[in-house]
From TrEMBL:
Keywords assigned: Metal-binding
Taxonomic lineage from the root: Eukaryota, Fungi, Dikarya, Ascomycota, Pezizomycotina
Name used for this protein in its record: NIF3 like
Family: Belongs to the GTP cyclohydrolase I type 2/NIF3 family.
Domain of life the protein comes from: Eukaryota
UniProt biased composition (Basic and acidic residues): 188-201, 277-293
Length: 615
């Protein structure tokens, strides 16, 4: 290994008490043997002063520096930056100025100082070179050791390269071969293959179910009555479902009869009053399968994907299957599509809201009626009402699931409601703030009530940036500005009438204001708990469902009048008068027999009580 020449000339032994600078040490921390001008710090203790002087002497000796003329040693001094170090320094001008203004003694002192600074800088440079030269030697030695440790591994590593290349080559060839032989799932050929696979599995399922009576008779003959009864439960449910839907014809009915007959006691078989063809006279199941193969194919085609995933794993056939293949019922999909067309989920405030299909159902467990129930809040009583009215889907304005569920039991009313609906096969869709933000939505309806017969210029309190082009202008809250002044009492009376004949409303007015004489030129409305949406609106009147004590104080301190009509009272009227009719009209395009109803148990939980009635 080559070596780097030492910067020393001639080489000398390094004094043990020498402090050499490095790249990590600033020059200001070094003692420089330079005569400086200006005030100085008082010298330290004699021992410290002597040690620093000794260090500088050792440094001069180490670098073979000739001792300079006697001068004052200033402890902890550094080479200061002067005008000589400036980028635009002009030598000729500086020399001319110094010669003109300085005496001979001053010139000699200046010369001595400059020479000392040059030597000090040179000493620092050499010390830096040596110190970092030592680091370079250490790094070189470390690299040498690393290479020495790696050299024994080189033969092993070199043998791995061909093996890895071979593995990669084989993997690439297998991948290419699979791509050629197996079509992509998204391609037409792939879709046909998947459809054929599903149909084959469904055909096998139908064949297994229709062959169940034969297995039952074999188990009964072996005395395994209990096992036979267990194996008959699921096939019989499937057969009954097929029978209700008119699938399979007489083959399904005969299969049910044969299965039931196989499990009847022998003494009951002879007492059956209905004449039946004896088993010997009937064609065997295999014969019927062969004879009615087209019918079996038709049955399998109808059943494809319908009952396969509700059966036990034993009856599911081969191939991957699971919950991902279960879809919502056709009617539920139609309701969701209609709601999303009227109130797109994109305009909902999903930063906190939970909108969309919150409870689903499948084609197999959904109600067969085409009925939708609309409600403001989904309580247990509303769920029971939906079951009694035999509805398939509930459209609940307020989401009844907000936080994550760690369990689903009957101990919690929300979870008990969820269990009841799931058991009944009723789906739940919740639009909430999508209804609020729609251009012809809830807040527009509420603003129309406030405005009444008076013209008002409208805008939204907070625009919705994610609105699709079909709902441009969507936003949260509505702002209105009258062309003239409108009586506050007139607005309150109109609100009470249009929101269900309210007898009481809550009003917060600025101190000294009289509701009967107050005039309104502008207003802001937001249904529900809408104060936060309106708090920056510069209007005379705020109308919302409910707000907090401190929000009301803030409003009246800003000179605004605040009217609140209770939370759900500000929303329920729109659901009954507008949303229900819009949804029914949109649904009739695809489901003419649809019916949209409201719940009789949906109402605001609060009642204004006159305490005099208690006396």
């Amino acid at each position: 290994m080559s070596t780097i020449a030492s910067p020393r000339d001639p080489p000398r032994r390094t004094p043990t008490n020498s402090n050499r600078p490095s790249f990590e040490t600033s020059r200001s921390a070094l003692a420089s043997p330079v005569l400086t001008q200006g005030p100085t710090q008082p010298p330290g203790p004699p021992q410290q002063q002597q040690r620093k002087t000794s260090n500088r002497a050792a440094l001069r000796e180490y670098y073979n520096l000739r001792a300079s003329a006697p001068r004052i040693e200033i402890p902890d001094s550094e080479v200061p930056a002067t005008e000589i170090d400036a980028p635009d320094f002009n030598v000729d001008e500086y020399v001319a100025k110094v010669v003109e203004k300085s005496s001979l003694e001053e010139l000699l002192r200046l010369y001595t100082r400059v020479v000392g600074e040059v030597r000090a800088l040179d000493a620092e440079k050499k010390a830096l070179v040596y110190d970092n030269y030592s680091k370079l030697i250490t790094a070189t030695e470390t690299i040498r050791k690393m290479r020495a440790n790696m050299d024994p591994l080189n033969p092993m590593a070199s043998t791995l390269d061909p093996a890895i290349a071979q593995i990669y080559s084989q993997a690439s060839s297998i991948r290419d071969a699979l791509r050629e032989t197996v079509p992509s799932p998204d391609s037409e050929e792939g879709k046909k293959r998947d459809a054929a696979t599903r149909q084959q599995r469904t055909r096998e399922l139908a064949a297994q179910v229709l062959a169940t009576p034969e297995r039952l008779r074999a188990l009964v003959s072996e005395g395994k009555i209990s096992q036979a009864r267990k194996e008959w439960v699921m096939p019989r449910k499937l057969l009954e479902s097929w029978k209700e839907k008119g699938l399979g014809g007489s083959d399904v009915e005969e299969c049910i009869e044969e299965g039931d007959e196989a499990l009847r006691p022998v003494d009951n078989k002879s007492s059956s009053s209905s004449p039946r063809i004896s088993r010997d006279e009937r064609p065997s199941r295999d014969e019927r399968r062969s004879r009615d193969s087209p019918q079996l194919d038709f049955l399998a085609h109808l059943l494809q994907g319908l009952f396969l995933f509700n059966s036990s794993p034993k009856m599911a056939g081969n191939g991957a299957w699971g919950a991902w293949q279960v879809e919502s019922s056709t009617f539920t999909k139609a309701v969701v599509a209609a709601m999303q067309k009227l109130y797109p989920e994109e305009i909902a405030d999903k930063s906190w809201d939970n909108v969309g299909l919150l409870v689903g159902n499948s084609e197999n467990d959904a109600k067969t009626t085409n009925k939708v129930l609309v409600t403001n809040d989904l309580t247990y009583q509303v769920a029971v009402d939906a079951i009694e009215q035999d509805v398939s889907v509930i459209v609940s304005y307020h989401p009844f699931i907000f936080g994550g569920l760690k369990s689903i039991t009957n101990k919690d009313p929300q979870q008990a409601t969820l269990l009841r609906l799931a058991k009944a096969g009723i789906a739940v869709y919740c639009p909430h703030t999508a209804v609020d933000a729609a251009p012809e939505g809830l807040n527009t309806w509420l603003a129309d009530i406030v405005s009444g017969p008076h013209q008002s210029q409208r805008s939204v309190a907070i625009p919705c940036s994610s609105a699709p082009s079909s709902h441009s202008g969507a936003g949260y809250g509505a702002i209105g500005r009258f062309e003239g002044d409108v009586s506050l009492s007139e607005i309150i009376l109109r609100l009470a009438e249009k929101l269900g004949g309210l007898k009481h409303v809550m009003v917060a007015s600025p101190v000294g204001a009289d509701v009967k004489t107050t005039k309104i030129s502008s207003f802001g409305v937001c249904a529900g708990s809408g104060y936060d949406v309106l708090k920056k609106a510069e209007v005379d009147l705020l109308v919302t469902g409910e707000t907090s004590h401190h929000s009301a104080l803030r409003a009246i301190q800003q000179g605004q009048t605040l009217v609140q009509v209770f939370h759900s009272n500000s929303e329920r009227g729109y659901l009954q008068e507008v949303l229900r009719l819009k949804l029914e009209a949109a649904m009739k395009e695809n489901v003419p027999e649809v019916e949209v109803v409201v719940s009789k148990y949906d109402k605001d939980p609060f009642t204004i009580l006159d305490v005099n009635d208690l006396k």
